[in-house]
Amino acid sequence: MPSYSAPLRDYRFIFRDLLHIERYANMPGFQDASLDLIDQVLEEGAKFCEGVLAPLNAVGDEEGCVRHADGSVTTPTGFKDAYKQYVEAGWPGIGSTPEFGGQGLPRVVNLAFSEMVASANMAFGMYPGLSHGAYEAILHHGSQEQKETYLPKIVSGEWTGTMNLTEPHCGTDLGLLRTKAVPQGDGSYKISGQKIFISAGEHDLADNIIHLVLARIEGAPQGTKGISLFIVPKFLVKDDGSLGARNGVACGKIEEKMGIHGNSTCVLNYDEATGFLIGQENKGLVAMFTMMNMARLGVGLQGLSQSAVAYQNGLAYAKDRIQGRSLTGPKNSEGPADPIIVHPDVRRMLMDAKSFNEGARAFAFWTALYGDLLENSPDEKVREKAGDYMALMTPVIKGYMTDKGYETATNCQQIYGGHGYIEEWGMSQFVRDARITMIYEGANGVQALDLVGRKLAANGGRAVFTFFNEIDAFIGENEGDEKLKVFVDGLKKSKGDLQEATQWLMANAMTNFDNAGAASHDYMHLFGITALSYMWALMAKASLEAKANGGAADPFYDGKLATGRYFVERMAPDSAAHLAKVKAGSASMMALAADAF
Amino acid sequence: MPSYSAPLRDYRFIFRDLLHIERYANMPGFQDASLDLIDQVLEEGAKFCEGVLAPLNAVGDEEGCVRHADGSVTTPTGFKDAYKQYVEAGWPGIGSTPEFGGQGLPRVVNLAFSEMVASANMAFGMYPGLSHGAYEAILHHGSQEQKETYLPKIVSGEWTGTMNLTEPHCGTDLGLLRTKAVPQGDGSYKISGQKIFISAGEHDLADNIIHLVLARIEGAPQGTKGISLFIVPKFLVKDDGSLGARNGVACGKIEEKMGIHGNSTCVLNYDEATGFLIGQENKGLVAMFTMMNMARLGVGLQGLSQSAVAYQNGLAYAKDRIQGRSLTGPKNSEGPADPIIVHPDVRRMLMDAKSFNEGARAFAFWTALYGDLLENSPDEKVREKAGDYMALMTPVIKGYMTDKGYETATNCQQIYGGHGYIEEWGMSQFVRDARITMIYEGANGVQALDLVGRKLAANGGRAVFTFFNEIDAFIGENEGDEKLKVFVDGLKKSKGDLQEATQWLMANAMTNFDNAGAASHDYMHLFGITALSYMWALMAKASLEAKANGGAADPFYDGKLATGRYFVERMAPDSAAHLAKVKAGSASMMALAADAF
Fold first, then answer.
1. Rounded to an integer, what distance in angstroms lies between the CA atom of residue A588 and that of residue B564?
2. Which of A265, A352, A424, A597 to mutate against chain B (most B CBs within 10 Å)?
3. Which residues, numbered 413 to 432 in chain A, qualify as contacts with chain B under a Cβ-Cβ cut-off of 8 Å?
4. ipTM value for the complex
5. Model pTM score
6. What is the reported pLDDT for A31?
7. Which of A443, B115, B372, B406 could form a disulfide with B434 if both were Cys (CB 3.0 to 4.6 A apart)?
8. For chain B, which residues make up each domain, given as ranges?
9. CATH for B160-282?
10. CATH code for residues B8-66+74-134
């Protein structure tokens, strides 16, 4: 049975030594977020995730959710009670605004908590995760009345939320969607149509479910310009806030999936369900993207979360399992064989995972902090940069971190040999659960295209040039430092490759858009490698500073330096291959006619 | 529901244009293998695989095998009948010697048939696949009496076989095994112990199961020097060949696995079971390796097989599913959207798979032909080279082809978007089934170590130098040919990287064995890329020749050239990254003490 132990020491390092979060103490939204409080919140959260959620992870995988003849859905044994505890402890609202009952902690703290939840039990974490997406959409686009009606209950966790985009014939291309909304003259609409792949779409955890549904108002334009967003509660809410009639939305089926069995992935049938417009008519995609950007960060973190928990268990097995002898002579000569952690190739899989996990965690948190600054900074310049970075980094975090998270989780499963393939050992579940993160919230190919087709070019490339300048400044400041040399040189190399790829795109993508599409996947990975090279350089510098300031005896900092060096030497060299593929252009990719395949 | 269509056109190209198999018409073992006969056999085989085995693939996944209270095992619905048809058509023996009832076709033809079986239904294919391994071991190491007793029934398929190596506490490190054999004075032994992960260990398909079991004879030396190989039939065989008493071996459990549910993966308990020594006492590993080398080729091909069937279905979906518009303007302006094959990133996943599949298939078949030459060539020089190549290429085929096969199968699942994650669509099964190929028959890390630690150094590096010389000769002969330029240049680059990595290993691995271990995974992949670059150069040349000789109107050859060019431009650039990682050495990989992770 796998277990989970939250990376509290790494969180402390990120908040304290890397992000210096105490700098923001005077900023709205940060006043209550002292380092001590963050430590305390995350310690409590860790206890809950380790003790309550992690033991239910395998249960959820094995049992799955059950749909009954009346369309109701039962979650796996223990989920309902765990959710009750989750609500009673106030976890749903730690990152939500106090105006509606939340604790108002910074997003970046909420993100750390989300990582722990996802590592412990990803399928469970999706129930509150989706609720938080609904919260964001209503908070930013709903009317005051809608906010007052729905947000307090969502923030408390009494109600949960969902996102309804996909239909059987359309996912990525939402312009094709057919679910229709007919105005009733009283401000409400009748919603009819079928939505599929609705995570947490029906369950027994909460009293009500607030569905956010994309639909086309009768007579609206075709394509994406005619899509509106609606609130469709499972139970209509009376004026006094109590629950009224059951609405015309029902779960028609639960999908049998490769993983995340503990989450109910529903076909939802809307049959003249009563819905309420959020925001403006035909502007539904704008509102939905508010949810999706946050959701994409969250999904990137899910990719990391499965890699992180798979790594922990791979590590425990590598220390425990004895098999063969070290190539350089026995390391456990008393025993019949050495623990397999002595074998370089086992190390390779562990170090790949460790150096990715820690780099990716830093990258996600560093980016999420810009989310807080975007929301809270009084300085317009800071907000502009924060908005640029959030937009630019989001597809990289979603696409790169889930691709790599799946790969490293697979490698950690590999450490178990044959036992890794047996469900009982739990490693298969991490891989199967991780697999969805590459697909949902915009498949990774869509992320890559969003990056090269939209985010790079926005404002004349302002965001990416700001990022390059920031890295150049760091290199300039630290180039002479012998202790940082390996990190600075590594960063220079990755960033040079990324810059060359960027220039190639600027020169070649406008004349042939297929060159952008053909380059997108490799560009996204090259960007991810560069971002992590930068994070490792920052973390190395922070570790050296911490050592110089009284931390010399703490082996944690030496571990950071060794892990970062591994990233530079063993992970970052992929950047050159990605650059070569970007520069290969689209010709050979598009050469074959469809019927010549 | 996914489907399968055998790559008969590609087989024809490989046998005719690439391998020129008619050259060997005068060699023993090849006399009956005319191109026409090969076509005919594979066409028949294709019909069987497409029509009988493929439709049972999802059934096997869903139902799995069931163990009953008495230890008997029922295979999924339809498997028993399909196996009966398989036996009646004579498929078990197509590659076996006529001396014991086989058809005596070359191994390379048998391999093509195996690929089709594995693509259609990998879990089913393992039943006869394991039997063939048992056949090889008994044929090469058994006594004449043992051959006469067991081989005719295994060749006919009336009985099946298994390989029993792994025990709960040992897999890779067989020196630790504890199953014991006590001599009975009459030439037989009593075998006691527990074996795990025994594929096809118990089932209802055949009348008898011939277990090949590694065990330690009482008093034998510790470690690998005290291991012997035994035949332990499920039912003892009487002198007249009929079945006698049930032997003391029983299935204690069937494992719940990530995939290959249709194959029974058994815990087998041996309780004073009667066994018969094969070959010499304490030389069991040598005999077992005869089975394992063939099995490793077969597993490499399984990796390819899942990639191949996943590719076919990914392609069909990419042509069928409409979503979004081409970046260069609508390609299906009549419809509401374009088929997703217009999108470069979808193409990338398809072309990655296609160029890997066709290159890997050529590589596996090219190598398997050396297996036939090793067995049959009258020329000692040819046999030496064939033996060298078989030994050198086997770990590459097993490790590289399964790593990449899993990756490309995952990408083909990705093409389906959310539907790829739903079991009903069948893509998840290909990925889950493919996953085991990286683990069993020696985990890929073990293959990599076998390559750098054993195969490279054998006979002073004779095998790898022969391979380099062969490639150099090809480059020398074709360097001036403009039409081959991209292939020759690509090959030169990959081979240059591989040679540099080889030299680095020679200079650095003997002084620090951890450098060999640390380099092994990347070296294996670099080797695989070089081998496929060579195959693509050979196939490009063969395609140009075929075009010049009347094949100009056949779009197949242009497809080959375009696919090969894609491999060179988009897959081969990884070689430089692998070289950089090889040359990084083991320092950063081994830097952390086990308790500092």
1. 9
2. A597
3. 413-414, 417-418, 420-424, 428, 431-432
4. 0.98
5. 0.98
6. 86
7. B406
8. 8-66+74-134, 160-282, 443-590
9. 2.40.110.20
10. 1.10.540.10
